[in-house]
Amino acid sequence: MTLALDTDVLVNWLMDGAPSHAASSRLVRREVEELGGTLGLVPQVIHEFLHVCTDPRRFERPMPMKRALELVGDLWAAPEVVRIVPGPEMLPRTLELMRNLRLGRKRILDTALAATIEIAGVRRLATLNPRDYKLFPFIETVVP
Question: At the topology level of CATH, where does 2-84+122-142 sit?
Answer without folding.
Answer: Rossmann fold (3.40.50)
